[in-house]
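Hello Y.,

Per our agreement to keep a running log of every chain we model this quarter, I'm adding this entry. I've kept the format consistent with earlier entries: sequence first, then predicted structure.
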Amino acid sequence: MEPKFFCYDKSNASNSLDLNASSASCYILSFQDSSGLDETRNSKRLKQLDNFNQYFGNEYHHDCSRDVVYKGSINGRTEEKKCSTRPLFRDHIWAYAQKYMAAAAVEEADGAYDKEEHVIKEEGKEDGMRLVQLLVACAEAVAYRDKRHASTLIADLQADALVFGTSFQRVASCFVQGLSHRLELVQPRGAVGDIGAIPKTIAFSLEKEKALGLVYEICPHVQFGHYVANASILQAFEGESSIHVVDLGMTLGLRHGYQWRSLIFNLAIRAGRPCRLRITGVGNCADRLLVIGDELGEYAQNLGVKYEFAVVESNLENLRREDLKILDDEVLVINSILELHCAVKESRGALNSVLQMLNDLTPKAFILVEQESSHNGPFFLGRFMEALYYYSAIFDSLDAMLPKYDTRRSKMEQFYFGEEIKNIVSCEGPARVERHERLDQWRRRMGRAGFQPAPVKMLTQARQWLESVQACEGYTISEEKGCLVLGWKSKPIVAASCWKCS
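Predicted structure for the entry above:
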């Protein structure tokens, strides 16, 4: 799609898994033996999970201190393979289970002196571990295109993964929906190709808009990005009179332009000569962005700030330098809030081209705010486990912020975070747009494109901001190599960084 300009002056690798991934079932079985569940339930789960062993031999070993040899038979053929000491998929499962059990132990240590309450917590912990086991087993079945076994596990999961249950039951319900959708599209074993064609997801809906508004209002995730970005922009533009902000994605299409209202207000009260603010919103829905720009124009006029707004209707891959109308007498900043990961594709060239084009604009500052997790790994099962751990933390935070049957929570979970989960789990190719990556990966990408870090030195102010917005206890802000990271307890959620041209 060619960009349109508006202006006015107010690899799916899920099915080619490493042989060692099968050993996930070994750990799952060991958890079953030690979980304390009744024998009937144990035998049922063991029977379901044992089906995976038909694809693999029964003998494998793992020792992290040295290289080991994997032996087994597949389709009647003996295989012998030397394994390196790098973490395998079974290690991800073991690590996740340890984290889950540790979190449960912490919760238990916080209270549970009453015997009845203690029993309820123990039952909840057992149910949570059983859901973890079933989810991983189902993900394996889907990855190996075993439709019959995966369908059985999904039916079992749907009975336990409740939309209004515990935090883990609720997050499990979103993953079950994603697995179910993916299962509908996979080819049978032995077929050519890994996964059927997946239609592109709808980028915008009324339900998603309402859910995004609730996320902004209740969770500090997006507000944190806005705060760090605006503070960095004001610092970069100190003493300047003409400012041009290019907003990639225009903050997810969030109504009313909350981020820029705050910036306009701070510019209005700033001492010194008056300034001119130009904002260019980049996105696929020009009509929505023009409405936001109109509202911002009225707000700026009331505060006496000179303001211009323009929209470039384009995705990031098709964005061109000439679309942005950069003037010689203005200072430029690039703003990307939870948006740039959508330009990450299987081929590295797509994002590199976008970043190099932005670097050619020589911005004074490039504000990058992204989810701090790795949901773009080469193997489906690895992505699945990373996403399960990440979104479990988010759903746990929602548990602490809202009552159990609050409909606002269910809207955020199903129509915002749930949509992200389903995209990560069920989609491949161009349809998979939620390709979140960690700070270390972004550092490498930005460095290759010619950017260098501009440390964000406002940890104390950010923590004061977190207290001022009365975020739920459990949220933290920390500094990591010049970047600020918002986390829930010990789990990083959103990372904010600033960059400049080399």
